[in-house]
Design goal:
6 strands; 4-stranded mixed beta sheet; alpha+beta; 434 Repressor (Amino-terminal Domain)
């Protein structure tokens, strides 16, 4: 019981909830909640269900046991428990069921091919639960910088995040979800790390939520599922994942270099117009001497304008709102400039600037789905290596919607090397 109480307290704090908030949701007194968290009051099944609804997480997360094997039915049951509204539209729910089934088959094929031997999978950050929003934000930004370095991504934009991370066994796909749900994160032995993003969102928002889900896979492996919605955006674990997405898609160094390529002075924006540069002490002067370096007096003389904002958003494939917020947080624009840019964007001026500059249309994307493509490609390899028969391959192909002619065209090349090897012997 004390272990369950400790877990309840940690999860409550990670969601930014007070004991009074929990008490109001459970229709209990605050002192009763205190007793629950200290292990002095029994936690009933009804308490667990209602807390899971409050925190929008799987009920299993609230229990102290280790995560074990789950069937896809249990994964779906966890999602429904966390967000009951997800069951309202049967057609959408069946599509979620299909995605979970594909993830389950993909995990099985990867295990048969022993891909664990070739990849360590995604990294993990065991930093504990953030206690305040600022701590959550710092953890997210630091991890974003480290992951870009670890994945050798440099300062380049990441447009196809699902393709970039599929080799790390992070499953990402998009389907139509409930209007209040932006994305779903699932973590189970059966499915692996699965991130489902609402197809109805603009493409830039989908990129953000793919990165957001990737952040959950790095920090929140003790959770079986998350339902990401506007209602829970203030939760500390959500703040951390959002900070990670901000830093991963728009790293400070990338933004600075792009602004410099536009002829913008950026160093003087985050510091003063006159800097003190430390210089080593000389032999004749005992005290350390700082060299005063006068700036080019350009701070504020060349403000970042709407064209700059539009170009940055197009280059990195993110929303203009994200760019504006990032520029503000990095102190490249003032609060007044931020409000002005935001207002101009709302009036449609940014869209007009985008068209006038003939920038790449970020709304155009391929129908290619790295999640399904990886399953098909690995299934062909599995047939070639004899760990999957043609009957099973047919079922896999039907699961992802391949036609009979497509199945035959895939299996024919897979059989060719085997014929050559037999002929050679």
């Amino acid at each position: 019981m004390p272990k369950i109480g400790t877990k309840l307290r940690n999860i409550r704090r990670s969601r930014g909830k007070t004991q009074a908030d929990v008490a109001a949701h459970l229709n209990l007194s605050r002192s009763t909640v205190v007793q629950m968290e200290h292990g002095n009051r029994r936690v009933t099944a009804e308490d667990v269900e209602r807390l899971a609804t409050l925190y929008q997480c799987s009920p299993s997360v609230l229990l102290s046991g280790q995560q074990g094997d789950e069937t896809d039915a249990e994964v779906l049951a966890d999602l429904v428990q966390a967000f009951p509204g997800i069951r309202d539209d049967n057609e959408r729910f069946m599509e979620i069921r299909q995605v979970v089934a594909i993830a389950k088959v993909l995990t099985d094929i990867e295990q048969r091919l022993r891909l664990d031997s070739y990849s360590l999978g995604p990294h993990a950050y065991d930093v504990g639960t953030p206690n305040i929003a600022w701590e959550a934000m710092e953890q997210g930004f630091q991890a974003a910088e480290e992951e870009r370095r670890r994945l050798n991504l440099g300062d380049a934009p990441i447009r196809d995040l699902d393709h970039t991370l599929v080799v790390k066994r992070i499953r990402m796909t998009k389907i139509e979800l409930h209007k209040d749900v932006a994305s779903i994160f699932v973590n189970s032995q059966e499915t692996g790390f699965l991130i489902i993003v609402n197809r109805c969102l603009p493409i830039e928002a989908r990129r953000f939520h793919f990165a957001h889900g990737f952040g959950h896979s790095l920090f929140d492996r003790n959770h079986r599922s998350f339902i990401c919605s506007a209602e829970c955006r203030q939760d500390f674990v959500e703040v951390r994942a959002s900070a990670f997405a901000n830093g991963f898609l728009l790293p400070d160094s990338s933004v600075r270099r792009y602004l410099e390529s536009l002829g913008k002075e950026v160093r003087g924006r985050t510091g003063g117009v006159e800097l003190d540069l430390f210089s080593d002490r000389s032999e004749r002067v005992r005290e350390a001497t700082n060299v005063s370096v006068t700036g080019r007096k350009r701070r504020g003389a060349e403000p970042i304008n709407l064209c700059d904002l539009t170009q940055i958003a197009s280059f990195f494939g993110v929303s203009r709102s994200l760019v504006a917020a990032r520029l503000r947080n990095l102190r490249y624009v003032t609060a007044d400039q931020f409000e002005s840019l935001d207002e101009l964007d709302a009036q449609g001026a940014a869209t007009a600037a985008h068209d006038a500059l003939a920038l790449t249309d970020s709304q155009v994307e391929s129908d290619h789905d790295a999640f399904r493509s990886r399953l098909v490609a690995l299934a062909v390899t599995a047939v070639d290596r004899g760990v999957c028969d043609k009957g099973e391959f047919t079922k896999i192909a039907e699961l992802v919607g391949l036609t009979e002619s497509q199945r035959e065209s895939l299996l024919l090349p897979a059989a060719m090397p085997s014929i050559k090897r037999q002929t050679a012997t």
